[in-house]
């Protein structure tokens, strides 16, 4: 065997020759491995059934489209605020215990009492605010509006309770937050099987309520009054990785969940009047969107307020710095819960509070938080800042005498005099700056002027160069905060400043009060011979630059636009002139500054008339705009010629299809001598068979000369097809969607990038306060009850309102009674509506829309249908959800949410109508015309209704024509047929109904804690009656009575004689054929005496006879009765007898039988 | 409700204040309106403007003091729809139309306004100018070309008017943010030379004079002549010229002049002078440059503010005092500040001669949404 094998030659493929070549060609030509299965075996993939293919294609497309959502700009902040986790459930379910366990898990710290929101650092990028929701419906509504994640706690031993369902419905209306169920009290089950069954049942119920597969947690039991550690840990992990969808309302409205409240009212005013309005500071993270200073906010349960001031405060619970590590260390596990009294330092604008008792106090020595340093410095200072200001000294030039603030002022005054003859613009600017500086009380204003003294040019230069003060201040601060952040924003503006910063950093060890930036500016310029010379060297250039800058009018636009307006100031000053304190001097100012178009009473005109237009006949002036036109010079990247050159280098020649022009690269120019002119397809094809033309670069191998006209045409067609395909065919189905998404993404990127490099202080002014910032909000005119009755258990939410939302108007909403609510709602009964941030009581009118868009009033909401509700309330954007409850007081059994809905339209007036039927009766009837009275009371009223359609009870339709003179209010009307005198005529009219202007915000936060759950507001009429014991006086007319119908007596049928005569015998009614026993009635019989006597006699006899008959009948009857009685008696006797007989017989039979046995 | 009233003095920027009040829903009180003039109080055209606002809105409360020197305005809800308004001939229709345009996207129903009065005068932007320069900006913010239109049915020159203009504009729930920072180069100049109740030759004289100046810069100039007669020519004689420079990126810079009104006391206008003057005005406008011309700076700024909460950017020339005041008012009404930066010229573009310094207006929209429009 072995030997045999060795003898065999191994297969050696041909390395050369025909076969090898063939094989090689085959291998090179089609690579079987590279082909897809579809290409290799196309038959297997051929369409077998059209139906099936259609189905599959449709399905895939359906799936694809289903995935697509309307894209929107991603506005989530880079550093998000802590997410709000609300713990909701009925009482005694274990909410507080869970909260304590969660906090303990995150911070290793035990909470003694839970009060207000508790913020913890959960991870490197996540912070969480925990919030316990009490069982008050006010509280539930408020929390449903702000919670990002809800832990819905369920007592497994009891099952779901009404509160949970109510809360779920509240959430559904106000944008659905994430919801996780938590089952507790599982240790109360004795049998395992029952527990499993209950779990399953509860899970299914929970899933139907939220969605299939919603997370439900089981907390199996308690260990030392706490939930099991591992379970809590798992729950925390779920919370930490939770992702959130942005919700519409919260995306558009800023809000703050206040975690601290402070009353900063002047103590004296409180002493004088204990009930005076308070000035209050509220602290919290901004969520939602940007919050602007002076914005209007609504505090649910309290009212609307204007923000007096917002200050940015260092984050009390910051996420740790981005360091590469897996978990947080002990120091970084922070908890911030000022109301609960844990955590360390509490920052304020003017005070710092240190919790001495807690083990976990804030780490003061940490370098990363410069604010500590700042606070430390502030604490150390002994002199107030203004004193410091005045005594502060500064050295401008080395070796000179230090300058104090007072000296600086003198200097400045002198300077101002010098500069008076400067051109207008500059002096204005100067004033401006000086003013600002004075306002800021910080930067001694001398340095600029000092610098300005050097030379004229350099003065200009300084102005051109200098940033405004605010920006500098900001730079200073940022410098202090971290040395890493440097002048990024500054250096791109003017590199000079930036470089100065670089140098200054090293030497500037001065502290807060020094205004380094500008001082250093000067220092660097003048310090040392070399530096000074350098500065002098390029003086000419600088002068030129400054001239250019002045020409351009390089100004600080922010200050020009938003700085103080000098003109207005002037006006105010001049106004003050008085003569002897009695008479005011009226000045004709308008004459003085006639060119001043912008004083308060000038013409309001948007058109701009250049004050000193340039002379456009001068060549220089003309040249200054020559590049604005397409004929001018273009910038490099857009210049056609430059780009052409670039293109030529890359691609060589091409042909412009539209004009037929050809462009060639330089190398091929000589070929192009015999250039052909092509206008259309046909002539080029006919004439230019042999001439060369341009080709796409991939076909370069074939020389131009070799191409026939056909080929050229082919190429052109291909190109056109490509272009067409690109526009229409080859586009993916989702191209539109993708493009849309890409656009929005681009916008999001721009939004992020635009202000990113700016320092916060400046950025806030442009953007407002970003979400994620911790701020202190000052509010004036807060009712004193808010402070005196403050209860941290109730969340205080500062909901920002957009512009129009502070106003009230009429809101029209689509509305539906909740199917679980027992009653239907009555029009004009007050209900409490939760809409936007607000909870308020109002009186809605319910209506339905008819087909002609008429809003018809309903007395009650339909049982299972949508209707419209119109009420007087706050203007809230369309599409906002709302919910209604009838009362928030107490806890009545049953489901409390009465209805839900969505806002459709807002207006300042509404047209809701109810039907009103006016009735009248005919007073005279002609053929189809009738006069109707009793409907109107005057001819004027009739005139108003001319042409209105009428209707009789029997259904005849008609029209009002014209008023009659008498009786007053009667009119002529026509009908489609003759009406009856007994008919009642109706006209159907629509009577507008006023929506009651009643808007009453629920002020639950202002009530003392023990009354919080009993806010009543306006009561319904029924409630009032019940409370006051007033019986309803019913109009007896509107009571329902049994309907009594009279028997209709028809008149006999009368057939006219003529007609009767003509009738065939068969058709004559039978009763007509009956002989009438007439005569008696018709012929009066007069009897004589005898006859009368006979008659009398006869009648007497007749009556006698009849009497006799009667007597006979009576006796017969009596006899019959007697006989009946007798028979009855006999029967009874007989029965008795028979009974006894039977008894005797049975006795005997019994005896006999006994004997037998 | 706690929305506090804004207080102002004087009649200047009257429209700005009322328009912004309407949009922001804040009430405004203006005092000392010409209180020291010989003819104190509101003028007829201002009263006419108030009446216009009243037709545009529902539920507004306007209280004018007995002397007419103070005014309280509590805005209602913008209604729009189709209406007619007789504009007071003291000011041209442009005065009213500018305000309507800034309100039009936020009405309940699309606006179809028929305005009667003076179509062209010396003070306000004429209807032509608005049609040629303002509407393209409005279209950019609305994101549509459809339905935004101004039709000049009849022309009416300054003192007596008699013109008629039809303005239509659709309404929107939200405006879109706009980034328009590169105006491109001017590719053509268009214009309208109009004349009413004067010799038709006037138009040609104006056109020739204008061309004599503008031909140095660009050859693609076409000026339509619009000589109206009969019932279409209004009540007073007059003529004028509106020029618009269109750039490659769709920016429109406009300038215009019209003859002095009959009986105004000004010396009579010579068509050649007027043509040259207008051309120079246009050059001045081009020198200032930007994507939006001086007249429309405020409209553009307003629509930037009223956009969604996204960054909008627009390049403009130097701010006019009117726009500066407008920005201030915006800050007062909407608490929003604009970032105004001079445009940084790239190094390779430094030698380009493109006129005066350009500014970049940047702002984040306030997320304004149209509360008037109904949803189904």
From TrEMBL, chain A:
Cellular-component GO terms for this entry: 90S preribosome; nucleoplasm; small-subunit processome
PROSITE patterns xref list: G_BMS1 (PS51714)
Keyword presence, Phosphoprotein: yes
Keyword set includes Kinase: no
InterPro entries: AARP2CN (IPR012948), Bms1/Tsr1 (IPR039761), Bms1_N (IPR037875), BMS1_TSR1_C (IPR007034), G_Bms1/Tsr1_dom (IPR030387), P-loop_NTPase (IPR027417)
Coiled coil: none
Organism superkingdom: Eukaryota
Family: Belongs to the TRAFAC class translation factor GTPase superfamily. Bms1-like GTPase family. BMS1 subfamily.
Official protein name in the record: Bms1-type G domain-containing protein
TrEMBL record, chain B:
Protein location: Nucleus, Nucleolus
Primary location recorded for the protein, binned into one broad class: nucleus
Highest taxon of the lineage: Eukaryota
RNA 3'-terminal phosphate cyclase domain: residues covered: 7-340
Keywords: Nucleus, Ribosome biogenesis
InterPro entries named in the record: RNA3'-term_phos_cycl_insert (IPR013791), RNA3'_phos_cyclase_dom (IPR023797), RNA3'_phos_cyclase_dom_sf (IPR037136), RNA3'_term_phos_cyc (IPR000228), RNA3'_term_phos_cyc_type_2 (IPR016443), RNA3'_term_phos_cycl-like_CS (IPR020719), RNA3'P_cycl/enolpyr_Trfase_a/b (IPR013792), RPTC_insert (IPR036553)
GO biological process entries: endonucleolytic cleavage of tricistronic rRNA transcript (SSU-rRNA, 5.8S rRNA, LSU-rRNA)
Pfam family, one: RTC
Record's protein name: RNA 3'-terminal phosphate cyclase domain-containing protein
The organism of origin for this protein: Lottia gigantea (Giant owl limpet)
């Amino acid at each position: 065997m072995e030997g045999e094998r060795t003898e065999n030659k191994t297969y050696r493929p041909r390395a050369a020759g025909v076969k090898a070549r063939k094989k090689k060609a085959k291998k090179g030509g089609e690579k079987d491995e590279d082909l897809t299965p579809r290409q290799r075996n196309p038959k297997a993939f051929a369409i077998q059934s059209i139906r099936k293919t259609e189905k599959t294609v449709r399905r895939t497309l359906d799936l694809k489209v289903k995935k697509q959502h309307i894209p929107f700009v991603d506005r989530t902040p880079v550093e998000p605020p802590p997410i709000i986790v609300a713990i909701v459930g009925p009482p005694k379910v274990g909410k507080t215990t869970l909260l304590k366990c969660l906090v303990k898990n995150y911070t290793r710290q035990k909470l003694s009492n839970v009060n207000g929101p508790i913020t913890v650092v959960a991870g490197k990028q996540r912070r969480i605010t925990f919030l316990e929701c009490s069982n008050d419906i006010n509280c539930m509504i408020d929390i449903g509006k702000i919670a990002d994640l809800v832990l819905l706690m369920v007592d497994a031993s009891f099952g779901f309770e009404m509160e949970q369902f109510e809360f779920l419905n509240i959430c559904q209306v106000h944008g659905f937050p994430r919801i996780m169920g938590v089952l507790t009290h599982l240790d109360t089950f004795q049998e395992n099987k029952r527990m499993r069954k209950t779990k399953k049942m509860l899970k299914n119920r929970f899933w139907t309520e939220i969605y299939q597969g919603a997370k439900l947690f089981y907390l199996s039991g308690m260990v030392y009054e706490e939930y099991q550690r591992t379970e809590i840990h798992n729950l925390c992990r779920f919370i930490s990785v939770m992702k959130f969808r942005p919700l519409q309302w919260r995306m558009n409205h800023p809000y703050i969940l206040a975690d601290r409240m402070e009353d900063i009212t002047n103590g004296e005013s409180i002493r004088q009047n204990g009930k005076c309005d308070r000035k209050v500071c509220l602290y919290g993270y901004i969520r939602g969107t940007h919050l602007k200073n002076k914005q209007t906010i609504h505090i649910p349960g309290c009212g609307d307020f204007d923000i007096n001031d917002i200050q940015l405060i260092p984050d009390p619970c910051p996420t740790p710095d981005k360091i590469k590590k897996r978990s947080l260390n002990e120091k970084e596990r922070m908890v911030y819960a000022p109301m609960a009294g844990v955590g360390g330092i509490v920052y304020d604008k003017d005070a710092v509070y240190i919790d001495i008792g807690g083990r976990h106090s804030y780490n003061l020595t940490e370098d990363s938080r410069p604010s500590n340093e700042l606070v430390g410095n502030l604490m150390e200072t002994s002199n107030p800042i203004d004193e410091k200001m005045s005594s502060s000294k500064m050295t401008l030039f080395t070796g000179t005498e230090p300058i104090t603030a007072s000296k600086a002022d003198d200097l400045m005054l002198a300077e101002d005099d010098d500069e008076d003859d400067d051109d207008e613009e500059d002096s204005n600017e100067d004033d401006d700056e000086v003013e600002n500086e004075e306002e800021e009380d910080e930067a001694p204003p001398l340095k600029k002027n000092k610098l300005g003294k050097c030379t004229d040019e350099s003065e200009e230069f300084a102005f051109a160069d200098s940033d405004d003060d605010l920006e500098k201040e900001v730079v200073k601060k940022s410098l202090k905060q971290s040395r890493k952040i440097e002048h990024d924003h500054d250096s791109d503006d003017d590199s000079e400043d930036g470089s100065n910063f670089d140098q200054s950093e090293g030497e500037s060890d001065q502290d807060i009060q020094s205004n380094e930036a500008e001082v250093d500016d000067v220092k660097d310029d003048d310090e040392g011979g070399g530096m000074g010379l350098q500065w002098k060297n390029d003086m000419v250039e600088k002068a030129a630059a400054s001239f250019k800058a002045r020409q351009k009018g390089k100004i600080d636009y922010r200050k020009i636009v938003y700085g103080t307006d000098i003109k207005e100031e002037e006006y105010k000053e001049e106004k003050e002139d008085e003569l002897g304190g009695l008479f005011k001097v009226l000045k004709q100012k308008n004459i003085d500054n006639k060119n001043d178009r912008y004083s308060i009473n000038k013409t309001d005109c948007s058109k701009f008339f250049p004050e000193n237009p340039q002379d456009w006949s001068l060549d220089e002036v003309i040249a200054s705009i020559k590049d604005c036109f397409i004929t001018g010079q273009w910038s490099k990247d857009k210049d056609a010629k430059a780009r052409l050159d670039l293109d030529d280098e890359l691609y060589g020649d091409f042909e412009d299809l539209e004009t037929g022009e050809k462009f060639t690269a330089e190398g091929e120019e000589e070929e192009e001598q015999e250039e052909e002119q092509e206008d259309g397809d046909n002539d080029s094809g006919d004439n230019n068979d042999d001439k060369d033309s341009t080709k796409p670069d991939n076909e370069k191998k074939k020389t131009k000369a070799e191409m026939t006209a056909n080929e050229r045409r082919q190429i052109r067609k291909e190109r056109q097809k490509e272009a067409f395909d690109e526009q229409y065919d080859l586009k993916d189905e989702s191209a539109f969607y993708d493009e849309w998404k890409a656009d929005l993404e681009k916008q999001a990127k721009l939004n992020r990038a635009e202000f990113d490099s700016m320092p916060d202080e400046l950025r806030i002014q442009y953007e407002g306060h970003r979400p994620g910032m911790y701020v202190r909000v000052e509010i004036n005119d807060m009712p004193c009850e808010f402070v005196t009755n403050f209860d941290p258990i109730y969340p205080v939410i500062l909901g920002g309102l957009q512009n129009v939302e502070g106003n009230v108007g009429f809101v029209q909403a689509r509305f539906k009674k909740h199917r679980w609510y027992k009653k239907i709602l009555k029009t004009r009964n007050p209900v409490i509506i939760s809409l936007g941030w607000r909870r308020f009581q109002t009186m809605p009118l319910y209506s339905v829309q008819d087909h002609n868009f008429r809003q018809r009033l309903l007395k009650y909401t339909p049982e299972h249908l949508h209707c419209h509700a119109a009420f007087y309330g706050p203007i809230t954007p369309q599409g906002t959800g709302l919910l209604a409850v009838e009362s928030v007081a107490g806890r009545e059994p049953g489901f409390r949410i009465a209805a839900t809905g969505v806002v459709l339209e807002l207006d300042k007036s509404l047209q809701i109508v109810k039907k009103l039927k006016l009735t009248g009766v005919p007073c005279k009837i002609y053929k189809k015309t009738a006069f109707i009275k009793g409907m109107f009371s005057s001819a004027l009223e009739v005139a108003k209704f001319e042409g209105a359609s009428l209707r009789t009870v029997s259904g005849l339709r008609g029209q009002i024509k014209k008023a009659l003179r008498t009786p007053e209010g009667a009119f002529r009307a026509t009908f489609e047929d003759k009406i009856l005198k007994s008919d009642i005529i109706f006209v159907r009219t629509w009577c507008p109904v006023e929506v009651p202007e009643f808007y009453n915000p629920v002020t639950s936060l202002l009530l003392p804690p023990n009354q919080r759950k009993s806010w009543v507001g306006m009561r319904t009429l029924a409630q009032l009656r019940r409370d006051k014991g007033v019986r309803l006086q019913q109009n007896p007319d509107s009571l329902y009575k049994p309907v009594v119908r009279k028997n209709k007596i028809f008149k006999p049928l009368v057939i006219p004689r003529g007609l009767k005569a003509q009738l065939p015998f068969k058709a004559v009614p039978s009763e007509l054929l009956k002989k009438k026993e007439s005569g008696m009635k018709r012929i009066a019989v007069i009897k004589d005496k005898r006859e009368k006597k006979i008659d009398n006699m006869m009648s007497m006899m007749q009556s006698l006879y009849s009497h006799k008959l009667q007597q006979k009948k009576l006796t017969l009857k009596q006899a019959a009765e007697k006989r009946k009685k007798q028979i009855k008696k006999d029967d009874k006797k007989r029965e008795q007898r028979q009974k006894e007989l039977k008894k005797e017989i049975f006795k005997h039979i019994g005896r006999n039988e006994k004997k037998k046995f | 409700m706690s929305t506090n009233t804004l207080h102002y003095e004087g009649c200047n920027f009257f429209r700005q204040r009322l328009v912004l009040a309407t949009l922001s829903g804040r009430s405004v009180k203006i005092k000392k309106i010409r209180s020291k003039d010989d003819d104190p109080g509101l003028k007829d055209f201002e009263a006419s403007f108030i009446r216009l606002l009243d037709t545009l809105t529902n539920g507004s409360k306007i209280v004018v003091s007995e002397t007419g020197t103070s005014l309280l305005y509590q805005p209602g809800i913008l209604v729009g729809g189709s209406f007619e308004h007789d504009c007071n001939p003291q000011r041209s229709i442009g005065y009213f139309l500018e305000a309507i345009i800034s309100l039009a996207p936020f009405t309940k129903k699309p606006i179809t306004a028929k305005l009667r009065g003076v179509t062209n005068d010396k003070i306000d932007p004429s209807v032509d100018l608005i049609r040629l320069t303002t509407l393209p900006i409005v279209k950019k913010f609305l994101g549509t070309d459809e339905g935004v239109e101004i039709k000049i049915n009849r022309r009416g020159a300054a003192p007596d008017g008699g013109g008629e203009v039809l303005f239509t504009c659709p309404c929107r729930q939200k405006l879109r943010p706009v980034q328009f920072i590169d105006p491109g180069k001017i590719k053509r100049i268009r214009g309208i030379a109009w004349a009413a109740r004067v010799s038709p030759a006037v138009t040609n004289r104006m056109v020739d004079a204008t061309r004599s100046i503008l031909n140095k810069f660009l050859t693609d100039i076409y000026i339509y002549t619009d000589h109206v007669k009969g019932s279409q020519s209004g009540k007073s004689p007059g003529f004028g010229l509106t020029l618009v420079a269109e750039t490659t990126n769709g920016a429109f810079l406009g300038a215009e002049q019209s003859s002095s009104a009959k009986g105004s006391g000004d010396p009579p206008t010579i068509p050649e002078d007027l043509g040259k003057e207008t051309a120079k005005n246009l050059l001045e406008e081009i020198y200032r440059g930007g994507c939006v011309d001086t007249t429309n700076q405020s409209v553009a700024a307003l629509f930037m503010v009223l956009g969604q909460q996204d960054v909008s950017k627009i390049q403009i020339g130097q701010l006019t005092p009117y726009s500066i005041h407008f920005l201030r008012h915006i800050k007062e009404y909407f608490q929003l500040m604009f970032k105004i930066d001079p445009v940084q010229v790239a190094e390779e573009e430094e030698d380009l001669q493109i006129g005066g310094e350009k500014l970049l207006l940047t702002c984040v929209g306030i997320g304004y949404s149209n509360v008037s429009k109904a949803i189904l």
